[in-house]
Structure formats: C-alpha cells, structure tokens
Amino acid sequence: MSAASNTALGIRLDGVRAGYGDTVVLEGVSLTLPPHGAMAVLGRNGVGKTTLLATIMGHTTLHRGAIRLGESEIATLEPHRRARLGMGWVPQEREIFRSLTVEENLEVAARPGRWPPARIYEFFPSLAARRRHRGNELSGGEQQMLAIGRALVGSPAVLLMDEPLEGLAPVIVDAVLHGIERLRREDDLAILLVEQHTRLALAVTERAIVLDRGGIVHESDSRDLLDMPERLTALMGVAERRVRPAAWQAS
Is the dihedral of CA 97, 186, 78, 33 positive or negative? Predict the structure, then answer.
C-alpha cells in the first residue's frame, strides 16, 4: 500500500497489550474504526487514552495483539512507516516547530495528495493570515490549528487526535470543532478522538469507547451515551467540565 491509496481506510486492534518497556498500560484492547468513521475515546486521566494513540502510531512497546490499517498489519512497523501508509497524529503537546514559520511547518510535512498547504489555509483562514509568523509567535489556538494542518498535509487516511481542545478559549474550541465536522463531511478520513470534554467529543463522533485501567469498559453509539447522562457521569467518575460553547450544546 502506498501514499496514493490513502483513502477510505480504517483501523482495527485485536487483543492489544502494550505500554512502556515492561510496564503494561493497555490490556486486551480490541476496537474497530471503520473507513469514514469517527470514534471518541473517553475516560478519566491516566486510564490509557494517550497510550492507545501512541500504540497505534508505534511509540510504545507492543507485548501482544494485532494492529491493522485497512488490510495491512502495521504492528511491527516503525512510526514513520505507519505515517507513510496513512496514519496522521495530532499529539496533545502539538509539537510544532516553533522556530519555523507556519508555511515552513506545513511544507516540511507536506506530501502529494488531497491536502496541499493551500487547502489548509482555506480550512483555517487564520493560519493564512499568519503564514509568515514563527510557531512561537502563534496563540495556543493557532498552534493547535497548525498541528492539525501539519497532520493533514501528510494526506492521512486515519487521523488520531489527542485532546485537541485542551486549554483553548471557547471561540477557538468552536472553530476546531467545526473543523472536525468539516473533515467528516468533506474528506475520506477516519477520526479517532481522545478528549476530556466528553459531550463535545460525543457531539462530533458516531461511536464512543470508555477506557478504565487500560481496558475498554463501555462501547456504544455516541448519541446513545449522550442520552444517558447518569451513565456517562458514572463512567467518567467525575462530573464533566462545562466549558462548551453554546453552538455545541447537545440536543
């Protein structure tokens, strides 16, 4: 499989046991994210959400299990080879190049495909206005948009997003959520979204899983979980933070 085929792919994990060295964080995780699908990964801090994404990208120690991208087994591949096959990652820390301009950040990651830098500027107009500014001159929201844009210019088939709303002002949260919605409508991406703002994540996804102690303790349609607030609160262990913009109030 080559970069040219990076459309309409999904991810499947079967019995994944993984962690860092001898320390096991994930135990027996199995999930299926279909092509074009969007899945929320929920749970309290420290239950393995970030480790799940890192494992899919190849940044942890896999002790057992299978990871497939489309029809390809990728569990033994290095992270850069997974990226070339169609994996895109927006890390929680953003990890943009702070000494490079917006334009340079996009150019260094760009690959031929459906997401040239010009399309990123159309998708996030504020980045177009700041294209000559260095990463360290951007606001937190602009840095997050750049992190998403940098993942997209690699023309991924599957986009992993680790808490993209963390620390953002409500107006920027709204912009990022609308961006995720547009990706679902306009592109062939499958999206796996880790997010602490549970109702926001459920509002822009179709399926949801809840992790606890490194395993999946709940899986359902996102709408079903939104319609069970007491169940959702019990699964999360704490009342969620109510910081969502009015435009994203769940109906």
Answer: positive
Torsion sign (Cα): 47, 93, 177, 59: negative
Residue 240 has pLDDT above 80, yes or no: no
Q: Against a cut of 0.85, is the pTM above it? A: yes
Residue ranges of E strands in 43-187: 61-69, 72-73, 87-90, 158-162
pLDDT at 148 over 50: yes
Every domain of the chain and the residues it spans: 8-86+158-167+190-241
Structure tokens at 134: 């260095």
Q: What is the radius of gyration, based on Cα positions, of the chain? A: 17
Going by C-alpha positions, the residue among 25, 18, 22 that lies closest to residue 57 is 18
Helix pair 140-152, 170-186: axis angle to 10 deg: 10
Top-confidence residue, 186 or 77: 77
The class that CATH gives domain 8-86+158-167+190-241 is alpha beta
